[in-house]
Amino acid sequence: MTSLGARSLVMAAFAASTAFGAACSPAASDGAIPSADPKTDGSETGRGTGAAPGGATTPAPGGDAGSSTTDASTEPRTNGFPAKWIDGTACGTDPEIQTWKYSEDTFILRQSLCTTFEGPFMYLFVGASKALLVDTGTGGVDLRGEVTKILAGKNVQLVVAHSHSHGDHVGGDGAFKNQPGTTVVGLQPATVKAFFGIASDAPGVFDLGGRVVDVLAIPGHQAAHVAYYDHETRLLLTGDTLYPGRLYIDDWNSYRTSVPRLVAFVDAQRPVSFVLGGHIELPKTGPDFQYGTQVHPNEHALELGDKDLRELDTAVKAMGNTPTREVHATFIISP
């Protein structure tokens, strides 16, 4: 979510955190991982979801799949979302990383706001032969240790990739570099496209071993930005292109081309259960949190829906060549 005016400071922090490398704090915890059994009672641990028959979760009101609806009987079985993410209100007791087991082989991790005002989210998809970690946060916490615990007993190669190359999403890379069974994807647009087989506007297809993730280039917030679509869970990862907060944009012309491309990508037989971004900067009600604050009481839900993506698409098209700050219920365009 790094603003244009603060980017140089964030990149300086990134350099420091990379040098920190493997000497990260060991305070990460897996205590937030629920049991493997999907929630079927709509309890608060499944906030934002309603359990369909058979334990499958369905999009919450306000987070529906728009034109990408599917038969509820084929919805992926998940644990929904936690009742609360670590939000900077309990720094004395909260872990430095909160790990949530979204499904049997899908994990959402959040770096504590107590360690960085960015409070970034990271995502881990596990297949039969590979595991894909999307983003590494700002560094300074033991993300590699947390991922190692999750992958314990699984014979998989770890691929560390990114939504984009801003410091708050790549700062933890140093702990993964030169580690056995681990590949860290480069940060330049051409490198990212080559690794995932992205050709121009066409998405790349990345096979984790019985689990396919499609990767689409969506520059605008940053030149190397990509979106990930997991066919197993139907989760769409949009990084800093769309999340409940301020959408900072480096290149408006690229951004206003990328958003419609992302909608077309979804419409090409990729039904979306939820849209998940890189941060939360909005409360459930009221104005956005002040930039740089490390306390987020009453946070908005992380998960957005297909309708939010389409609302962004409509707004971007309406602005044409002249972007302006525009406040919406679930995001703020901040060119």
Q: What distinguishing features does this structure have?
A:
single chain; 335 residues; alpha/beta; Metallo-beta-lactamase, Chain A; six-stranded mixed beta sheet; 6 helices; 16 strands; 21% strand
Short account of what is shown:
With 335 residues, this protein is an alpha/beta fold. It has helices spanning 7-20, 143-150, 167-170, 189-196, 252-267, 306-319; strands at residues 49-51, 57-59, 97-103, 106-111, 121-126, 130-134, 157-161, 182-184, 204-207, 212-217, 226-230, 235-239, 246-248, 274-277, 326-327, 332-334. The strands form four sheets. It has a six-stranded mixed sheet with strand order 3-4-5-6-7-8, with helices on one face. It has a five-stranded mixed sheet with strand order 9-10-11-12-14, with helices on one face.
Describe this structure in words.
With 335 residues, this protein is an alpha/beta fold. The protein has a single domain, classed as Ribonuclease Z/Hydroxyacylglutathione hydrolase-like (Metallo-beta-lactamase, Chain A, 4-Layer Sandwich). Helix content is 19%, strand content 21%. The chain contains six helices and 16 strands. It has helices at residues 7-20, 143-150, 167-170, 189-196, 252-267, 306-319, and strands at 49-51, 57-59, 97-103, 106-111, 121-126, 130-134, 157-161, 182-184, 204-207, 212-217, 226-230, 235-239, 246-248, 274-277, 326-327, 332-334. A six-stranded mixed β-sheet has the order 3-4-5-6-7-8, covered by helices on one side. A hairpin with a 4-residue loop joins strand 9 and strand 10. The longest helix is centred in the C-terminal third of the chain and has 16 residues, at 252-267. The protein is globular.
